[in-house]
Amino acid sequence: xxxxxxxxxxxxxxxxxxxxxxxxxxxxxxxxxxxxxxxxxxxxxxxxxxxxxxxxxxxxxxxxxxxxxxxxxxxxxxxxxxxxxxxxxxxxxxxxxxxxxxxxxxxxxxxxxxxxxxxxxxxxxxxxxxxxxxxxxxxxxxxxxxxxxxxxxxxxxxxxxxxxxxxxxxxxxxxxxxxxxxxxxxxxxxxxxxxxxxxxxxxxxxxxxxxxxxxxxxxxxxxxxxxxxxxxxxxxxxxxxxxxxxxxxxxxxxxxxxxxxxxxxxxxxxxxxxxxxxxxxxxxxxxxxxxxxxxxxxxxxxxxxxxxxxxxxxxxxxxxxxxxxxxxxxxxxxxxxxxxxxxxxxxxxxxxxxxxxxxxxxxxxxxxxxxxxxxxxxxxxxxxxxxxxxxxxxxxxxxxxxxxxxxxxxxxxxxxxxxxxxxxxxxxxxxxxxxxxxxxxxxxxxxxxxxxxxxxxxxxxxxxxxxxxxxxxxxxx
Length: 477
What we know:
Blueprint: H1 2-20, E1 21-24, E2 32-39, E3 46-52, E4 65-69, E5 77-80, E6 87-94, E7 100-106, E8 110-111, E9 117-118, E10 123-128, E11 136-137, E12 150-155, E13 161-168, E14 171-177, E15 185-186, E16 201-209, E17 212-217, E18 221-225, E19 233-236, E20 243-250, E21 257-263, E22 268-274, E23 282-283, E24 294-297, E25 304-308, E26 317-321, E27 329-332, E28 339-344, E29 347-351, E30 353-355, E31 366-369, H2 376-382, H3 384-391, H4 394-400, E32 401-404, E33 411-416, E34 423-429, E35 434-439, E36 445-449, E37 456-464, E38 468-475
Antiparallel strand pairs: 1-31, 2-3, 2-30, 3-4, 4-5, 6-7, 7-10, 8-9, 10-11, 12-13, 13-14, 14-15, 16-17, 17-18, 18-19, 20-21, 21-22, 22-23, 24-25, 25-26, 26-27, 28-29, 29-31, 32-33, 33-36, 34-35, 34-37, 37-38
């Protein structure tokens, strides 16, 4: 009887896991690979790049494999990025089913003192327009050189792209293109806060919402740009010693985010959360059920999904959070998942391990989401925290506050209503400094003298005893 009950329980767990994640055949026939990063340009298309599934991400074994689907995961088409076995993937950014960009770095030795630094430069950005049959190394020696460690490439559309690398020559390497990658221009050092001593970034450790981009560093800091990489500010996520920002994910509002941090000295990971776009962060330490490998946001929802490759079943699988990382609920504990990415609430994939010939891992390795996420409206009814975040979306900006002219030159008008009539209005620089403050004093129209503020982007923050909202503004000269 006991054996029957255990068998029934095992069958139930397997059914439940498959109900949440549908196994996919990645198309490989003689490889052992893990999937490190994915890019979903539309509902039917997804690309996934690989790493050494036997020895781990930072092994010295090259893996140039990738795979893609054009039919929503029904079939996957494998391929390889060139033949240079000294390279390893940093990330991928797909334009559509035929065109994609990848950032690649040279295989070097892992540096223990700087958990995600690498001691060997080189690599670059590679581009395909024929579904990965051919790849072109873009501007070698100009767009990154032999001393570079490319961290990621990201295209917000077919024309506009950004490529970011670790400090080289004393400054971060950040390049921009606005003509489909035909020409790239390096961002001037004066527009990027200087790195600290030995400060580095993590491969694919970034988030992008429209023109806003964030990436984390080995010193517990986060760089942020609100104009797609032209200008940057830097903020402190944590002052905990030897703690590094591995990954950052933001919801559609650009305000609510979760960061995954790691202290390699004591092998400890942390969840940090922000509700003001990254200016300030809260440490939730190691919440129950959180999966400590990767984290991503689900567009169109208030959900964050974490995944893990931990060999212990208690910690592996995936979990979801609806309160910006404070609490997590198990999605599954059945299969290791190194990465998870979503196009929307109905379209997402996770990548684990594929082992040709293995009785359990063959014809698997990628999982398609079958998760039914809670929508923001239903969350707002049961959670005051989530309601406040929903109140901070653009819809609320339009209803409760209007700002004009935009951009402003000398005077900025702030029209208020509802719960913001009795509040404090502040203009905050992108590095967190309060540049101007004025009390609304129950006035429906407040004028701010911005004539003495330098041209640039700022955060307009309006705080009352009922709620606080923030809005990006621009001052010109």
